[in-house]
Amino acid sequence: MSPPRKISRRKFVQSASLLTAGLATPAWFPKFHGVSNVDQPLREFGYGDVSLASELHERQLEQTRSVLMGLHEDSLLKPFRQMGGQPAPGDELGGWYQYDPNYDWHTFDAGFAPAATFGQWVSALARSYAITRDRKIREKVLSLNRLYAETISGDFYVKNRFPAYCYDKLVCGLIDSHQLAGDPDAFRILEHTTDTALPHLPGKAVEHGTSWRPGTDESWTWDESYTIPENLFLAYQRGAGARYRALGSQYLNDEYFNPLAEGQCAFAGRHAYSHVNALCSAMQAYLTLGNVKYLRAAQNGFDFLAAQSFATGGWGPDETLRAPNSNDVYASLTNTHSSFETPCGSYAHFKLTRYLLRVTGDSRYGDSMERVMYNTVLGAKPLLPDGKTFYYSDYNFEGRKVYSNHAWPCCSGTLPQVVADYGINTYFRDARGIYVNLYIPSTLRWTEGNASLSLSQKGSYPLDSLVQFEVTASRPVEFGVNFRIPSWAEGASISVNGKRASEPVIAGRFATLRRRWKRGDHVEVDLKLAQRLEAIDARHPNTVALLCGPLVLFAITDTPQAVTRQQLLSANKVGEQKWEVETATAPLSMLPFTAISDEQYSTYLVVS
Ligand SMILES: [Zn+2]
Question: Which residues pair with 552 in a beta bridge?
Answer without folding.
Answer: 547
